[in-house]
Amino acid sequence: MTQQATKLVIVTEKLLLKKIVKIIDEAGATGYTVMEAGGKGSRNVRSSGQPSVSDTYSNVKIEVLTANRDVAVKISDEVAERFFEDYSGITYLCDAEVLRAHKF
Amino acid sequence: MTQQATKLVIVTEKLLLKKIVKIIDEAGATGYTVMEAGGKGSRNVRSSGQPSVSDTYSNVKIEVLTANRDVAVKISDEVAERFFEDYSGITYLCDAEVLRAHKF
Amino acid sequence: MTQQATKLVIVTEKLLLKKIVKIIDEAGATGYTVMEAGGKGSRNVRSSGQPSVSDTYSNVKIEVLTANRDVAVKISDEVAERFFEDYSGITYLCDAEVLRAHKF
């Protein structure tokens, strides 16, 4: 009744959003969700040079749901390789189930 | 020590929020969380007729945590049936664990 | 290729954010993500005495990703013990996978 899917989560600096959306589109994912976020990472490499204060929402959380786990891994790899030397960010995967009747 | 639970996630257009909250309440779920969201879906059926730009937060992400998976599926089915012909949206389920000592 | 991790999710009143961040830091977690949220809980114990309306974002959703599940449980226990008698809130755990090449 349900279809296994993979949810890729990317939390990173807001100024990278357009570039990451391009990577998501080119990888063949059919959609994504974006939310404003704040927080603190494990490294002090924020491009702005400022400490990240939790109540300034200068990050974004991007979620990509895909039936094909390889697509999620590919996006994750490309985002990490291109940006995470110079910008703060993290990506991880979660399992999800989509009801078969619903398109995504 | 922990109790299995199901998290239902609904991402859809903001103008549906009140109607969806009513469905959640009537299904017997005890609570929900709402966040503003933007993004792009797989179909171009946004009721506004505008393309959804990722930095306009005209969507909402609604999360419902329930100990009873059937409640999550029921809400998901009803939301999809009533709205996803005419509005953009997606629903999916994730596994979660609630520490037994904590009520939800 | 991937490393199992635990995502702790805390949804509670915004005014608790600083205190909870302190608990997260002291537990040894390396980072967290914060988002504004609204919603309704199972109990009517909001400290403000007001009903929580879903379109006023007076809550926060805090996510902590950790390789060590015990750290997540410890934070969850401490947050629930210290605050959830007097404030509305919920915590739960989800499984996540971090690509090994990515630090978190």
Can you give keywords for this protein?
homotrimer, 104 residues, alpha+beta, Alpha-Beta Plaits, 4-stranded antiparallel sheet, 24% helix, globular
Question: What report would you give on this structure?
Answer:
Three copies of one chain form a homotrimer. The first copy, chain A, has helices at residues 17-26, 69-83; strands at 2-13, 32-40, 59-66, 89-99. Chain A has one domain (2-49, 56-95): 2-Layer Sandwich (Alpha-Beta Plaits), CATH 3.30.70. Chain A has two helices and four strands; from the N terminus they run E-H-E-E-H-E. Chain A is 24% helix and 38% strand. In chain A, strands 2-3-1-4 form a four-stranded antiparallel β-sheet, with helices on one face. Chain B binds chain C through residues 1-2, 5, 7, 17-18, 21, 30-36, 65, 94-99, 101-104, and chain C through 9, 11, 35-43, 54-55, 57, 59, 61, 73, 76-77, 80, 84, 90-95.
CATH class of chain A equals Alpha Beta
Choose one word for the global shape of chain A. globular
Terminal CA distance of chain A reads 15 Å
The quaternary structure here is homotrimer
Task: Please tell me how large the radius of gyration of chain A is.
Answer: 14 Å
Give me the CATH architecture of chain A, please: 2-Layer Sandwich
> Spatial order of the strands in the main sheet of chain A?
2-3-1-4
Give the averaged pLDDT of chain A, no decimals.
86
- The DSSP helix count of chain A reads 2
| Helix/sheet category of chain A | alpha+beta
What can be said about this structure in brief?
Chain A is α+β, with helices and mostly antiparallel strands. Chain A has helices spanning 17-26, 69-83; strands at residues 2-13, 32-40, 59-66, 89-99.
